[in-house]
Amino acid sequence: MNIHEYQAKETLKSYGVAIQEGIVADTPEKAVEAAKRLTEQTGTSWWVIKAQIHAGGRGKGGGVKLAKSLDEVKEISSQILGMQLVTPQTSKEGKKVHQVLVAQDVYYPGESKTEEFYMSVLLNRASGRNMIMYSTEGGMDIEEVAEKTPHLIFHEEIDPSVGLQGFQARKIAFNLGLSGQSFKEMVKFVYALYAAYDGIDASLFEINPVLKTSDDKIIAVDSKVSIDANALYRQKDLAAMRDVREEDPTEVEAGEAGLNFVNLDGNVGCMVNGAGLAMATMDIIKISGGNPANFLDVGGTANAERVEKAFRIILKDQNVEAILVNIFGGIVRCDRVAQGIVDAYKNIGDIPVPIIVRLQGTNAEEAKKIIDDSGLKVHSAILLQEAADRIKEVLA
Amino acid sequence: MSVLVNKNSKVIVQGFTGSEGTFHAGQMIEYGTNVVGGVTPNKGGQTHLDKPVFNTVADAVKETGADVSIIFVPPAFAADAIMEAAEAGIKVIICITEGIPTKDMIAVKNYISDKDCRLVGPNCPGVITPGEAKVGIMPGFVFKKGKIGIVSKSGTLTYEAADQVVKAGMGITTAIGIGGDPIIGTTTKEAVELLMNDPETEGIIMIGEIGGNMEADAANWIKENGTKPVVGFIAGQTAPAGRTMGHAGAIVGGADDTAEAKMKIMAACGITVAESPAEIGAKMAGLMGVTA
């Protein structure tokens, strides 16, 4: 689960991570109030107005701007609030901005020059341990750094039996070329950051940039935080930070019905039991000349109610030209699933697109007979290849 | 021969008296698996499905000599259950539970690293050696005895592959569901290695999905050490980057964990890659010279 930048920063701060301070606002008037309060708290004379959406690259789309007066705070926040922000990480329609973060200007002039670094904390799947990944090349697209200058990206793996050690935090600060006060600050920063990652069951932290200010403070200027969805049961405060406005409404609806659904932009819908088989079914749709309109795992109990809900969700997509149902019945009997499909079809009424039902496993023959005798516009199949051939036929 | 489980395996069920545990333990007993008892804290001394219930895994091991455990404990308590089994000396721990927090699995992997045990899963369908032992939730009738080993991250896709193998005139030595989580006990490479060393297994089917580098590791190992024909399939050729596709581990994070990249590495390492999930059985039959 992803959270907003302002929520991520509040969370980091509660673990002692130094951050670029800010106050969130959902109207231009509140943004001005926030700017005034922020100046009282931090002494900042300029403000950065940052669109709060769940996607990176906001600056490139015009979602991050500097305001040098309260009038500009109002003007810029009224431009950003309500806009459809398009970034390299959103769809071409972009995402609607509901809130802005009015943040302090941290690039103020001072004794030393400012420097930007990159830091993330994530799981190294190969070793089964967390690692801190960091680079001297901050404020840039890290994929680009990895491609062009891989020697400037460093890793520090954390031993789970002892946790992050002091020598590791010091090594990170040294590798980033720091000394004196900024070195001490960075060691503290790394410690607090890892404690936060560990404490909130995060699956990803990405702080880009980590800034060394002109007075040698080390602070998180941006922060992307994802939480392990499997741990939300014990992270109630974080679970409450979910913003469903950032999610696809159809996916939210499917989730509430207990269906594992991902919206895609193809023309053939699918309904499958099991995540691996669901991905494989999407692949066979592609091989058969179509494009998958969704990923949908109906789970182990493919009963009439769930099947009906799944059909209704798939049919919300106007681009769907055909639906492939692919169920491998093991413990769940295919004849029951077939009856569920027939009942669901009748409840919905006329389904305007052809449906191919492939049922294999326990009582597959009986299931095929139920589908064939139903009198409905449904093509049946038992072998996966037969289902693929039916898709080719209906798309032709 | 076979790997991990066979007719001599003494199996206990952790989370024995819960609804999942009860249902699947019943199915396993019906299949002929040698289930010797189960564990549910505070229900020790009772009898369930005509088998003894123990308070702890250690008690169960002491009383029954159990060497295999299957875990149906809910996600919040499953990591603890795995560590308890490892501590009690269980040799093969099969964890079915889906939804264990990654942080818990980091601790588990670390804890069991110096224990004499093998963890399979979590978030897996289990392991079956047809005709001998079903230690999992798969439909037993799909898996007929034969000479093909299967390694897979997925549940129903494993059943699909097994069904194709059988329909193509072959059968299965052992099918290992390794699980779809980011951290799992037995990797694709380790499962392939087990089957490569099993004298009864003559061909191997390896089914992976997007995310992580386990299939690439296995492919590189096969290139150096493989002695048997291998068919590979990767689910998720059409999956978008950055989205979790059902399994917590099924997410494209970069350029080298896409289905396309994995299939390319597998092919380069001498594995016969099935482009379509419908041709897994036929590809294996082709390599084995079997005509149905």
UniProtKB/TrEMBL annotation, chain A:
Mg(2+) binds at N208, D222. GO terms for cellular component: cytosol; succinate-CoA ligase complex. GO terms for molecular function: ATP binding; magnesium ion binding; succinate-CoA ligase (ADP-forming) activity. Substrate binds at N273, G330, I331, V332. Residues 271-386 form the ATP-citrate synthase/succinyl-CoA ligase C-terminal domain. Pathway: Carbohydrate metabolism; tricarboxylic acid cycle; succinate from succinyl-CoA (ligase route): step 1/1. Its EC number is 6.2.1.5. It catalyses: succinate + ATP + CoA = succinyl-CoA + ADP + phosphate; GTP + succinate + CoA = succinyl-CoA + GDP + phosphate. ATP binds at K50, G57, R58, G59, V106, E116. It comes from the Bacteria. Binds 1 Mg(2+) ion per subunit. Residues 2-210 form the ATP-grasp fold succinyl-CoA synthetase-type domain. GO terms for biological process: succinyl-CoA metabolic process; tricarboxylic acid cycle. InterPro entries: ATP-grasp_succ-CoA_synth-type, ATP_grasp_subdomain_1, Succ-CoA_synthase_bsu_CS, SUCC_ACL_C, Succ_CoA_ligase-like_bsu, Succinyl-CoA_synth-like. Its cofactor is Mg(2+). PANTHER family: SUCCINATE--COA LIGASE [GDP-FORMING] SUBUNIT BETA, MITOCHONDRIAL, SUCCINYL-COA SYNTHETASE BETA CHAIN. Succinyl-CoA synthetase functions in the citric acid cycle (TCA), coupling the hydrolysis of succinyl-CoA to the synthesis of either ATP or GTP and thus represents the only step of substrate-level phosphorylation in the TCA. The beta subunit provides nucleotide specificity of the enzyme and binds the substrate succinate, while the binding sites for coenzyme A and phosphate are found in the alpha subunit. NCBIfam families: PRK00696.1 (NF001913), sucCoAbeta (TIGR01016). Belongs to the succinate/malate CoA ligase beta subunit family. Heterotetramer of two alpha and two beta subunits. This is Succinate--CoA ligase [ADP-forming] subunit beta.
Automatic annotation (TrEMBL), chain B:
Keywords: Ligase, Nucleotide-binding, Tricarboxylic acid cycle. One of its GO terms (cellular component) is succinate-CoA ligase complex (ADP-forming). It comes from the Bacteria. Its EC number is 6.2.1.5. The active site is at H247 (tele-phosphohistidine intermediate). Substrate binds at Y159. CoA binds at T17, G18, S19, E20, K43, I96, T97, E98. GO terms for biological process: tricarboxylic acid cycle. InterPro entries: Cit_synth/succinyl-CoA_lig_AS, Citrt_syn/SCS-alpha_CS, CoA-bd, CoA_lig_alpha, NAD(P)-bd_dom_sf, SUCC_ACL_C, Succinyl-CoA_synth-like. It catalyses: succinate + ATP + CoA = succinyl-CoA + ADP + phosphate; GTP + succinate + CoA = succinyl-CoA + GDP + phosphate. Residues 4-100 form the CoA-binding domain. One of its GO terms (molecular function) is succinate-CoA ligase (ADP-forming) activity. Pathway: Carbohydrate metabolism; tricarboxylic acid cycle; succinate from succinyl-CoA (ligase route): step 1/1. Pfam families: CoA_binding (PF02629), Ligase_CoA (PF00549). NCBIfam families: PRK05678.1, sucCoAalpha. Belongs to the succinate/malate CoA ligase alpha subunit family. Heterotetramer of two alpha and two beta subunits. Succinyl-CoA synthetase functions in the citric acid cycle (TCA), coupling the hydrolysis of succinyl-CoA to the synthesis of either ATP or GTP and thus represents the only step of substrate-level phosphorylation in the TCA. The alpha subunit of the enzyme binds the substrates coenzyme A and phosphate, while succinate binding and nucleotide specificity is provided by the beta subunit. HAMAP family: Succ_CoA_alpha (MF_01988). This is Succinate--CoA ligase [ADP-forming] subunit alpha. It comes from Acidiluteibacter ferrifornacis. The gene is sucD.
